[in-house]
Structure formats: C-alpha cells, structure tokens
Write a structure and sequence with these properties.
Blueprint lengths: L3 H37 L8 E7 L16 E11 L2 E7 L3 H33 L8 H16 L6
Antiparallel strand pairs: 1-2, 2-3
Helix pairs in contact: 1-2
The protein binds zinc ion.
Zinc ion binds next to loops.
C-alpha cells in the first residue's frame, strides 16, 4: 500500500501530465497556423527542374562540329513530367530564368511545408482525446453504428 505522501505525489504527477497534454496540442496548433501562413505567403510555384544544356546544331561547317567543342549554349531549359507527359520551356538568361528559378524553388518549399503539415496534424490527432460519452445507451448506439460501418462488405461494382 502506498503511503499518503506517495499517493499525493502520484496525484500531483497525474495532474501535471493532464495539464501538459493540452499544452502540447496548443503548441502544435500554433505550429499548424504558422505553416498555413507560410503557405499563403509562398507566392507562385511550379514543379520541375531547370537544366543547363549545350547543343550541337548538326551543321557540318559550324564551329560546334569540331571535336572538343561543347556545343551551342548554355541554354536553360525548364522541364517536368505530368501524367507521363513531358513539358518543357526554354528560359532566357536574365529575369525569365530568375523568375522560373524562384518558382521551382518555391515548389520545393511548398512540398516541405505540406509534409510538415501532415506530420503536425498526425501528432495533433494522436494527442487530442476522443469525447467521453457518459450515457450508456448513447455509447451502445455509437458502438453498434461503428461496428456496422466497419463490418460492412465492400461494394461490388
Ligand atoms: Zn553549331
């Protein structure tokens, strides 16, 4: 049997633990708000990559036909694949390339923020307690309803 002091200490720890749970949720909720704000402020973004290419034009008399010549360029090319289809765009060196570089970078930030949002949400879901149902009938009705939902056979098409 624990002594009175031990029981008191146990209760104090339990209270402290109960108090710390909503604080953790609140912290995560704040983090979630911050992530949404960053998403909203992100600006334009696009997927894909920008590559630098040197190209041989194929004309026999051109300088690029000589051995050791890197080819014409550098040429800056943005490209991505969507649904198995490749998309590409030539970018002019200067503001056009700078704009596309920022948009592609922003897409990476977008993906990172989305991953973080999912992680934060998952943590919130794990920490947030379910509602407590005191009413026996209400609780039984809920259990029956859930069992029905989960045991239902998958529909055939
Ligand atoms: Zn050439």
């Amino acid at each position: 049997m624990p002594t009175a002091i031990e029981r008191l200490e146990q209760r104090r720890i339990a209270q402290k633990w109960r108090k710390s749970v909503p604080t953790a949720i609140e912290r995560l909720e704040q983090r979630r708000i911050a992530l949404y704000q960053r998403l909203q402020a992100l600006g334009d973004f696009r997927p894909g990559t920008i590559s630098v290419n040197f190209r041989k034009c194929g004309k026999k008399r051109c300088a690029c036909a000589r051995p050791g010549h890197p080819g014409h360029g550098p040429q800056y090319l943005w490209n991505t694949t969507r649904g198995g289809q490749s998309q590409a765009q030539n970018l002019r060196l200067g503001p056009e390339l700078e704009k596309a570089r920022r948009e592609v970078e922003n897409h990476q930030v977008f993906l990172r923020l989305c991953r973080e949002l999912v992680e934060v949400n998952e943590k919130i879901c794990r920490l947030r307690p379910a509602v407590h149902i005191r009413d026996e009938k209400e609780l039984e009705a809920l259990k029956k309803k859930l069992q029905k939902q989960f045991l239902r056979r998958p529909r055939r098409r």
